[in-house]
Amino acid sequence: MRNILFLAWPLLVLAGVTQAADNPLTLEEAVKIALEQNPSNRVAREGVNGATEAVGVARAPYYPDLGLAASYDRWQRHAFLPNGIVPPGSPTIIGPTNDWFTGVTTHYTLFDFGRRRAKLRAAQARQGVAQEDVDRVRQDIALSVHQAYFGLVASLETEGVARRALARAEDHLRVAKERKAAGAVPQADVVRAQVEVAEAQLALERAEGLVRVAKGNLNTAMGLPVERPVEVDRSPREIVPPATINLDEALKRAVSARPELRGAQQRIEAARQGVSLARSAYGPKVKGEASWGWRDTSYFPHDKDWLVGVSIDLPIFTGFARKHQMSGARSALSREEADAERLTQAVRQEVWSAHSKLRETYEATRSTEVQLRDAQESLRLTSERYQAGAGTITDLLDSEAALARAEAVRVAALWDYQVSKSLFQRSTGEQLAEAKR
Q1: Can you identify the CATH homologous superfamily of domain 23-63+112-281+318-427?
Q2: What is the distance between the alpha carbons of residues 263 and 134, in angstroms, rounded to a whole number?
Q3: What pTM, to 2 d.p., does this model score?
């Protein structure tokens, strides 16, 4: 039953998306779906599971080994005994004989100069790296959804701009035909207006194609089939002046909160334990062992056989292997520390660039608002002049083209700002919508 539910879970999620298709999909809902469906998140989670099991493996040497043993040997040996112990002519060959044994054996490491501890702590550090990687992947998935979501909204808004431009072009054609019928303008004005309508229709077709591509991009980012229908919430979003952001605090927050940097610190810890592991090879290892069973020459042994003891292993010379292991472990530690410094610089530079881009897109939203108002007023005045016979078709079409450009630039600026805002939040380590575990 559990297997059936596990296999059916993706279908149930998709069914829920289909049932909710009548309502516009919010950004938070899109991120939530992506974190459930995107395979990258599942890959990262399995990495944590594997690292957790590795910690269990590293903890195992703290427990004694216990096992059942059974063996059979047939042997014959020459007994080297001193002269005078046995009478002359006595046999010096023992065997051939059968040796049957069955019993329980156990081994336990009493002391290993820190080897077990180093292995365990290194495994725990790698588990931390895997967990930080999950956070990084989740944030990357959320960011990709943000970008795809805002890309779709921008495409839909651009499609709306194209539709309005086509409606205005058709209205201009109507006015040109009326004035041509009244003998106020030449046929050239009608032809120019027809060309404008054709170009507006082509622009609308291109915009519709971009919408289809953007919907596929959003579905892919959410881990859903690319062809699924999707409608998104296009409500206006808040625009916050970048001047309200404390850049110094953002840089400090990024260094402390970015999962990449936390993972780098975990890798440094794992490398430190690698040095401790290499150092443990210089110390002795003390092991306790015991066995209890039966040994005999028959298939079913009857004689009791037991052993209890302690062994000490201290390597004296290993062909300089320990020296090379220590040097390699120290180099690995130095490499991880240098990589953490490089990554810190890269993160700070990323925050700086993201903040600069946010300021740029914010200023663009302000300037395009003015441009849009001016273009709308210019088209209104030019249209009135043309209808009154005081303007030319060229002036009218130029004003229409300027308004279409202003509307398109305004849409791009608004949604570029939202993408820049998401990029800045991601760069500082701030959790994007619904990306928290």
Answers
A1: Outer membrane efflux proteins (OEP) (1.20.1600.10)
A2: 10
A3: 0.79
